[in-house]
Amino acid sequence: MKSIEELKKIREQTLKNINLRKEDGGDTTRIVVGMATCGIAAGARPVLAACVDEVSKRSLAHVSVTQTGCIGVCRLEPIVEIFVPGEEKVTYVKMDEEKARRVIHEHIVNHKVVTELTIGANE
Amino acid sequence: MKDLSLSVLDIAMNSVKAKASLIEITLANDGKTLSVRIADNGCGMDADFLARVTDPFTTTRDTRRVGMGIPLFKLAAEQAGGTFAITSEPGRGTDLMAAFAVDHMDRPPLGDMAATVATLIQGSPDIDFVYRHTAPCGEASLDTRELRQALDGVPLNEPEVLQWIQENLDEEERMIAL
Q: B37-41, B43-47, B61-65: which range is least confident on average?
């Protein structure tokens, strides 16, 4: 087992980041991943992990990744919803790790909706 | 569900929904039987709902009329020569146990338990999770109450913390996987 000491070191580093974020202010973009039975069975766990990883790797300070229950279109799971402040919600369907990373790159970083992965293009 | 770790994630989500403050996930493998137990101190169920809870047409949600989580888990256990039991009391919590014959051909593989635990913590950083997996050659365990103490105010779902949790647990899981 890695030591608790190591975790304490991580704490010091993380604390600095948290304080920086607080000083920054700003509205938060939310990434919401459907994690009900339907989502999990369809592969939502690695999609969520990819979102967390990508947000962390790119140091996206005003982006949160959260989980939700069943969105209501189980056959299109895994589903990821993106809420950018002041913009309409975008729903991405049939996601996988690779698509999730692409959406974060193109939609959140470059502000360009990946139309072909949205629910509109798949229905 | 492709593996047991996904079932555990799914079932533990019920505990989250039941507003539990403590969720215990216990896997015990004695070489013959693998038992998977998920116990919470959430709102629990009354006798009537409990009697219907393994029926796939029972659910608490309103986005759809089916609830497949518990029925699927029960089916997985019974198909693999195992058993399933659930007890619950309103206001006290729910205790669910599925046992699998380890060598049964239809037993789902264990899957990535570290990812499941990390996912649960990511989604519910304020809930305490106690995870314990005992196997013939050792054990893997994690208690968020201990981690919370070391983190002293830093949330458990900070990416660096989650990464530490997952890597740490994954390492322990690998040690006992043989």
A: B61-65
Residues A26-122: name the CATH superfamily: Glutaredoxin (3.40.30.10)
A94–chain B nearest CA distance, Å: 17
d(CA A120, CA A113): 12
* Residue B150 structural domain: 4-176
ipTM entry: 0.92
| Predicted TM-score of the model (pTM) | 0.94
**Partner B, chain A 8-67, Cβ-Cβ below 8 Å:** 8, 10-11, 13-15, 17-18, 35-38, 40-41, 45-46, 48-49, 52-53, 55-56, 65-67
Q: Are B133 and B142 in contact (CB under 8 A)?
A: no
Contact criterion met (CB below 8 Å) for B23 and B15: yes
Contact B116 A15 (CB under 8 A): no
Q: What is the pLDDT of residues A26-58, one digit of tens each?
A: 789 999 999 999 999 999 999 999 999 999 999
| Number of structural domains chain B divides into | 1
C-alpha span between B135 and B29 (Å, rounded): 5
